[in-house]
Amino acid sequence: ISPVPTTKFEITDIDPSSANFDQEITIFGTNLGTSGSVNFRLSSQSFSSGSAPIVSWGQNQIIVKVPALKK
Q: Over the stretch 12-71, which tens digit does the pLDDT of each residue have?
C-alpha cells in the first residue's frame, strides 16, 4: 500500500484469499488512509505486476479489482 500512512496501519483480513482477473478483493484493516495504490504480484515473482484498479478506499476497508498479471 502506498503512500505510507503517517499513522500505523494494520491489515486484518483479505477476502477472498484468492481471486482471478477483474474480480474484487476486499482488504480489511485499521488506519488505511483515504487514498493510495495497491499492487499485486505472483508468488513466484520478485517484481510487482502493477497497480490494481481501486473500487473504493476507506479508513477500514479497501476494495480493488485484480489486475492482469505479467508473467
A: 999 998 888 899 999 999 999 888 888 877 677 666 666 889 999 999 999 999 887 666
How far apart (Å, rounded) are the C-alpha atoms in residues 62 and 71?
25
Residue type, position 18, single letter: S
E-strand stretches of 1-71 = 10-15, 24-30, 54-57, 61-65
Cell output for 7: 499513522
* Nearest of 66, 35, 32, 28 to residue 50 by alpha carbon: 66
